[in-house]
Amino acid sequence: MTTDASAAAQAFAPARLTMARELAGLRKRELAEAIDRTAAAVSQYELGQSRPSAETLTRCARVLEVPVSFFTVGRPQLHLDTAHAHFRSLRSTTAAQREQALAHVELLWEVTEHLDQVIELPPVELGLPLDIPHGGPVDTARMVRKAWNMPTGPAVHLVRNLEARGIVITYIPAVDSETIDAFSSALHGRPMIALTHKGNPMRQRFSVAHELGHLLLHPEPAPGNPGNEREANVFAAEFLMPAKEIRDQLPSAADIPALKQLADKYGVSTSALAYRGKDLGAYSESTLRRTIATLTRLGWRTHEPVHSGYPGEQPELLRLAVDLAAASGLPLRRLAERLHIGLPRLRALIGSADARPRLRLIHGAG
């Protein structure tokens, strides 16, 4: 059902305009220029000090690529700010980039709320409670591995394990992957880990383990806190490369082929394994520097080759939940209508490919 722009203007929700603008990655000034209004006017709309006309709201909908009904009241809305999320660095990201990433998680929360009304998502059961710290990062990593019945060997199916234990993992579209690897939040009980489409899938596995460390070690987020970031890295290193078993397998001279083979076995990047060797005392600082310099010249710091084009561990919980909801009477198109967002945006958010065939003209008809 299409909502009339005049009716939408009468039922205007200021926070929805803010959310749509942030989803688009626009500043107020940029939106104002695009809709031929002043930045002060956009600020007044978002603060609820004035109401946009039907014409203005139609322009906003077109620029921000949402139905005009997206701007209406009557739906629960989560508000996240930087203080509620584990961001690795505040210096390397702009406020607009962080707001865009957080807005995607806010919308994802709405998706899960609707799905929870139709199906039962997995309960949050990580083996350790999320609302209290559990000691140091090494001990916590070992406790989690024990709780998951994986005391030795590589941490296989990391993403699948987390999703089975109630954590929602997603790739966020249209967010700058050069400045944001991943971030996480546990607001309102269900933890979420958001990833960007960045390079080496082994590096992304480390990012997932890093965010799991934040969720378990730091109940109160402190974005950009160097101490917290170090602890999350130590957790991820111990979780993915346990000291008791990895130390004796490290090649003595940081041999690149041997390091690569061991890194592939444990599902980590070769550079992460080299740093692990340094932290465990197997390599000197000079050995590490030479190894990292070699990996940099090979281009492996950003695009390390993986066997057989391995795409990495892909989140599936949301896609499977959407499929089950569709079978229970809530097809994807109707879910998009309930959320008042377009179907393409919903597909991108949950990581579901467009099922329509793509055709390409090879040559003209003779």
Automatic annotation (TrEMBL):
Gene3D superfamilies: 1.10.10.2910, lambda repressor-like DNA-binding domains
Superkingdom of this protein's organism: Bacteria
SUPFAM superfamilies with a match to the protein in the record: lambda repressor-like DNA-binding domains
Pfam families in the record: HTH_3 (PF01381), Peptidase_M78 (PF06114)
InterPro entries to which the protein is assigned, alphabetical: Cro/C1-type_HTH (IPR001387), IrrE_HExxH (IPR010359), Lambda_DNA-bd_dom_sf (IPR010982), Rad_response_metalloprotease (IPR052345)
HTH cro/C1-type domain residues: 17-71
Protein family membership: Belongs to the short-chain fatty acyl-CoA assimilation regulator (ScfR) family.
Listed PANTHER family: ANTITOXIN HIGA1 (PTHR43236), BLL7220 PROTEIN (PTHR43236:SF1)
Name listed for the protein in its UniProt record: Zn-dependent peptidase ImmA (M78 family)/transcriptional regulator with XRE-family HTH domain
Species this protein is from: Kibdelosporangium banguiense
